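Cross-posted from the bioinformatics board.
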Amino acid sequence: SAVISQKPSRDICQRGTSLTIQCQVDSQVTMMFWYRQQPGQSLTLIATANQGSEATYESGFVIDKFPISRPNLTFSTLTVSNMSPEDSSIYLCSVDQGLGLGIYEQYFGPGTRLTVT
Amino acid sequence: GDSVTQMEGPVTLSEEAFLTINCTYTATGYPSLFWYVQYPGEGLQLLLKATKADDKGSNKGFEATYRKETTSFHLEKGSVQVSDSAVYFCALRPQGAQKLVFGQGTRLTINP
């Protein structure tokens, strides 16, 4: 399975500031995904990032608030902009690993725990 | 739209008890189904999966069977251990899609 690392692992930020989260994979992957896990809640997909093209955002998430970069096949960043306390969450990146015959498994990074004060 | 519903938590059991965590789904076509586990302070780990009807996924003593007729994928383990204490998420991958749709998670605590 793919090994995924994220930086930072946690941060405490002031409202109104921005934080950029990095995601690094140990192999080349086509698609990378960014999820949010609000306190005590399930995971919600923010966007899908494909190398060389703009990210595709899910309903309720916009590029101005969560800009994403995907400069190559092993790396992506998610920025949480103009933060408010409601942005306090765990942010996770994930990647697909194809097993053949149209079967995929999705693996997750360890997450970035963000607290906005 | 596609959705996953898990049994309400938290669930508390004694060591060596039998575990069932219910999961039902709504989806068109033939989604793939997954169970993920999140241990305290850690990220999400894939526990098991099933990609077609009647498939049984299994790992670490856990198992779940893809039941198309009841749209269910219940997680079971015959004898739980304290180390199984974690949050368990049921998820589906819609047919032809890449994103995962997660249930709300079930927190499991096993007491010695």
